[in-house]
Design brief:
The chain has 117 residues and is an alpha/beta fold. The chain has a single domain (4-116), classed as Response regulator (Rossmann fold), CATH 3.40.50. Helices cover 44% and strands 21% of the residues. The chain is built from five helices and five strands; from the N terminus they run βαβαβαβαβα. It has helices at residues 12-24, 35-44, 61-70, 84-89, 104-116; strands at 4-8, 28-32, 49-53, 76-81, 97-99. It has a five-stranded parallel beta sheet with strand order 2-1-3-4-5, with helices on both faces.
């Protein structure tokens, strides 16, 4: 059974490119266009990994991560952002993350590393 990944990004093109790339690598991929949709999907489905944009309208990655912690979800997280300074300010610089734009093969290597652990 393939690993399930949730890709969360309000930028449709970015989300679609990441999701397509991961599907080509034979992962089962769900997509959410904002933090609200991500939380709804996490409440209904189990995901092994979430790739989430940090800054989005309404709820961003920090809100989704707080939800996941409150529910003790074991979903791994990779953050993607155009604002890497936010991670350090929020004390989340230790989480795997990529600054936009990033190399898709680097992302895939990180996905494989986290899902094989």
């Amino acid at each position: 059974m393939s690993k399930r990944i949730l890709v969360v990004d309000n930028e449709q093109r970015s989300r679609e490119i990441i999701a397509h790339f991961l599907r080509e690598a034979e992962y089962d991929v769900g997509e959410a266009d904002d933090g609200v949709s991500a939380i709804q999907m996490l409440a209904k489905n189990k995901y092994d990994l979430m790739i989430c944009d940090v800054v989005m309208p309404q709820l961003g990655a920090f809100d989704v991560i707080s939800y996941m912690k409150s529910r003790s979800l074991s979903t791994s997280v990779i953050l993607i952002t155009g604002h890497p300074d936010l991670l350090a300010r929020r004390g989340l610089g230790h989480l795997p993350h990529f600054a936009k734009p990033f190399n898709m093969y680097d992302l895939l290597r990180m996905v494989e590393k986290l899902l094989s652990a």
